[in-house]
Design a protein that fits this description.
Helix 8 (about 165-185) packs antiparallel against helix 9. The protein has helices at about 5-10, 20-25, 30, 50-55, 60-80, 90-115, 130-160, 165-185, 190-205, 215-225, 235-260, 280-285, and strands at about 160, 210. The protein is elongated. It has about 300 residues and is mostly helical.
Length: about 300
């Protein structure tokens, strides 16, 4: 049985989900569908859990990309199954089909990204896949994602700097000057818009508690790549860019200096093993010099 295009076009967010197919199959009077369609209708793929645009925006780091894909797919799975009734036999079977597809997609992605231990895992057959299989996989996934999030947090901290409020105010002033330089420059509109977008991204980064050094580098690289003749005042542009670099570099140097001067964290003393205490009767006998007379 084939579903009309009208049925499938109703899927929110551009995703044709099995739940949408199931609903579409029920609306025979409105869309001419004659029977209920199962989730096993050949539509199961990675695009049931993420959109092509989301795939295109995945990070270049394979580990981060896998984490992003897993998060997107988990949210999509939750959205698709939230209206199912697990006490209904057919709907519970469809939940398991979706979960099996979810595991299939992530194992395939892990092989592509070379993420262990998932890349070495075998996909259970549909007949051998149950709620326990899904829970075990989720436990492994949560365990890995937790480690990855902590690792990325540490790495982000090393690649960023905390900029004091007054320093941020100075940088905001430089940003306004640089924006004027870009708007008054003699360059193609597409290039001008790209630079302004880069500047907006850097300004948004500046509002965070820690500023990513990569955002600073990308802005500087894009600016210096423009030929000097394109600027209304090359000297002014160069001075503003230099001021931004020096201000951020000074903030980082001060942060590194504080880390070096800070005393190491004190470790709590470890308690010695608990010694065996004498029994009350033996202690009393010892106090009265009767220890040799008591056979215990």
């Amino acid at each position: 049985m084939k579903l009309g295009r009208t049925c499938l076009s109703k899927a929110p967010g551009g995703l044709v989900t099995p739940y949408d197919v199931r609903k579409a199959a029920w609306c025979s009077s409105a869309h001419g569908c004659a029977a209920r369609c199962s989730v096993k209708c050949g539509l199961m793929s990675i695009l049931n859990f993420v959109t092509q645009d989301q795939l295109d925006e995945l990070d270049e780091d394979p580990r981060v990309a896998f984490m992003q894909l897993a998060n997107l797919a988990q949210r999509s799975l939750a959205d698709q199954t939230k209206n199912f009734d697990p006490d209904h036999e057919q709907e519970w079977r469809e939940i398991e089909d979706l979960r099996h597809s979810f595991v299939n997609v992530l194992l395939a992605a892990a092989k592509r990204f070379e993420i262990e231990p998932f890349a070495s895992m075998e996909l259970p057959t549909a007949n051998n896949f149950d709620n326990r299989s899904y829970r075990d996989f989720r436990d492994h996934l949560d365990h890995y994602i937790t480690q990855l999030v902590i690792d990325n947090s540490s790495r982000t901290r090393r690649q960023s700097v905390e900029v004091p409020p007054k320093t941020k105010d100075s940088i905001r002033g430089y940003i306004q000057e640089l924006r004027g330089c870009i708007e008054q420059s003699d360059m193609p509109d597409t290039k001008r818009e790209a630079l302004l977008d880069r500047l907006d991204a850097f300004q948004a980064e500046l509002e965070k508690r820690r500023v990513n050094l990569l955002a600073v580098s990308m802005l500087v690289f894009d600016i210096i790549a423009v030929p000097g003749a394109a600027w209304a005042s090359y000297e002014l542009t160069s001075r503003v860019v230099t001021n931004i670099m020096q201000t951020v570099a000074k903030a980082r140097a001060e942060e590194q200096e504080k880390k070096q001067l800070a005393p190491p964290a004190e470790f709590k003393a470890l308690s010695p093993p608990r010694r065996d205490l004498p029994s009350p009767r033996r202690q009393a006998a010892k106090n009265y010099n009767f220890d040799d007379d008591i056979p215990f």
